Amino acid sequence: MSTFMETFAQLRDEKRYDEIIAAVPYARLMGVEFGEDEQGELLFRLPFLERNVGNVTLPALHGGLIGGFLENAALLHLMWNRESMTTPKIVDFSLDYLRSGRAQTLYAQCEITKQGKRVAHVLIEAWQEDRSKPVAVARAHFLLSPGS
Q1: Rounded to whole angstroms, what are the CA distances from 18 to 25, 84, 88, 110?
Q2: Against a cut of 0.90, is the pTM above it?
Q3: pLDDT grade for 2, boundaries at 50, 70 and 90
Q4: Which of 26, 82, 138, 145 has an alpha carbon 20 to 30 Å from 5's alpha carbon atom?
């Protein structure tokens, strides 16, 4: 019987993106998708779904949804880029909302700025039509392995 991380590693090696999302219930519920962009970097997508609207007057995506999307993107990005068979645990997440997320697809890309033996730091940026106009940016810290 394989662990989640062993299954994840196999799916990652075979680039079976949809099956990875299917294995993460919250990402699946939100409707997250991901794959590689033209440069081979991971690109996360949150296609617009009516149920994800938080402000029907504008309409705008729910802020909690945007935060959950960015947190999931950071976790998946970190797991994708690690060889370890342990699941990282989030210890800190900071999110800045810069503009309303309109009723359209939201994109995100991540950058691991530090990865030590115990802790990793990931920057996440989300945008819609124009990457130079981010909807939100976030910083996440993950515990990679339990302390001794």
Answers
A1: 12, 21, 21, 19
A2: yes
A3: low
A4: 138
Q: What does the buried/exposed string (b/e) look like for 25-63 if buried means 16 or more CB atoms within 10 Å of the residue's CB? A: eebeebbbebeeeeeeebbbebebeeebbeeeeeebbee
d(CA 6, CA 18): 17
Identity of residue 57: T
**Range 32-36 average pLDDT:** 97
Calpha distance 124→70 (Å, rounded): 6
The two tokens of residue 7 are: 């299954």
Q: Which residues contact 99 (CB under 8 A, 6 or more apart)?
A: 133, 134, 135
What are the tokens at 126? 């989300």
Rounded to the nearest angstrom, the gap between the alpha carbon of residue 143 and the centroid of all alpha carbons in its chain is 16
